[in-house]
Amino acid sequence: MKLIKDKEFLKNIAHQIDLLNTLGGGISETYVDIKKYKKGAVINVWAAGVSSELFKVVLHNNQLTLFSVLHHPDNPEMAAPMFNRTFILPPQVDLSRIEAVHEDGQLQVKLPYFEGTQQPREIEIKKL
């Protein structure tokens, strides 16, 4: 059996097969894990073959949407969604301090809580 030695050809054909597989109903295996801590929460997303450039993190009001889209390198109009997940954030999350980091194939979104909101506080009801 003869092996194809043109690495650029193999890379291009593999990308096209992946794109067509996704368009044809294939899926990119994605794993999401949420961990809660005293000072905040962390959303970890692992998606095989998804680089940091393909991930998008969008915050609108208290909704955080994480998604990735696979584009064809020669035709940017040809694209397929690989992952999409929306989270409703609780009121204790400080929306202005949310951070996203991509490292070793993992997207990590840090959701820090407002300072001093760790303990619930009962509000006194006044009679008028």
Automatic annotation (TrEMBL):
Q: Identify the PROSITE patterns for this entry.
A: SHSP (PS01031)
Q: Where does the record place the SHSP domain?
A: 22-128
One Pfam family per UniProt: HSP20
Which stretches are annotated as coiled coil? none
InterPro entries per record: A-crystallin/Hsp20_dom, HSP20-like_chaperone
Q: Which family does it belong to?
A: Belongs to the small heat shock protein (HSP20) family.
Name this protein carries in UniProt? Hsp20/alpha crystallin family protein
The top of its lineage is: Bacteria, Pseudomonadati, Bacteroidota, Cytophagia, Cytophagales
